[in-house]
Amino acid sequence: MSPAVPEELREAMLRFQEATERLQGSYARLQDEVRELRARLEAKDRELGRSRAETEHLARYLEHLLESVPSGVVAVDAEGRIATINRAAQEITGFGPETAGRPFGEVFRFEEPEAADLEALQGKARPTLTLVRPDGERVLLGLRVSPLRGGPENRGGWVVVFQDVTRLRRLEEQEERNRRLVAMGQMAAGIAHEIRNPLGSLELFASHLVEELRGSAHEDLAAQVLKGLQNLSRITGNLLLFARQVEPRRAACDLAEVVAE
Q1: Strands 72-77 and 138-147, how do they pair?
Q2: Are residues 120 and 158 both part of a single domain?
Q3: What is the phi/psi pair of residue 126, to 5°?
């Protein structure tokens, strides 16, 4: 017969068995929680990965968009240093990407002293400023300054957007010169018209005078007066012809006669 197990040992064994079962249950629940946490972490990692990919895609899109803008765009931080300069700004100004980090006023040398204060330029509607490029060439920039909000650490700054209006300004100046020339031509045509009427009478009187003085000592003098009046009449006629808008007409002509004239 097997020896009897003491009651205390039996109870201890039962408690040990119960504790083991509880530990196994706790371990199983812990494994379940670990698997659930791991699944959540993997889901969060996938979500962060998608968010990071979307952020990188948006950053590349914004960068391409900024590089595709035909206007020059320069971002300036709160300390007045260049943070970003797009491709159009580099082509217009002649500055390279190495200007990032340098003071705006040191890089962009304008002939106008007020251009050094970006904050003062915010209230102006597209001022035109003269920029000296690194090669010494001067370009006219139609410039607009806006405050930069929501930048890094919300420190602020400015966004400077500009276009090269040098050619436009030259065209405007040329147009102004053309308007003045047209006005001068119209005035000259009016003067020539007023002169031509009495000039015709003088030419007629001079021709009669030549006929009356033919064979006398004053015939050459009268002929010179008539010739001078005829030249003046031809000049006023050419002036009126030049000032008048004449539609060209096609007609057959003898080239030999044209060359002879």
Answers
A1: unpaired
A2: yes
A3: 50, 70
Question: What is the extent of the structural domain holding 221?
Answer: 172-260
How many residues in the chain?
A: 261
The answer to whether the beta carbons of residues 90 and 96 sit under 8 Å apart is: yes
Q: What type of residue is 138?
A: R
Tell me how far the alpha carbon of residue 42 is from its chain's centroid.
Answer: 48
As a whole number of Å, the CA-based R_g of the chain is: 47
Question: 52-110: per-residue pLDDT in tens?
Answer: 877 777 777 777 777 778 888 998 988 889 988 999 999 999 998 888 889 988 888 88
Number of domains comprising the chain: 2
One domain for residues 152 and 177: no
153 and 81 fall within a common domain: yes
- Same domain, residue pair 135 and 179: no
pLDDT digits (tens, 9 = 90+) for 157-181: 888 889 888 888 888 878 888 888 7
Q: Do 73 and 86 contact (CB within 8 A), yes or no? A: yes
158 with 178, same domain: the answer is no
Report how far apart, in Å, the C-alpha atoms of 231 and of each of 188, 238, 260 are: 17, 11, 20
> What pTM did the predictor assign?
0.52
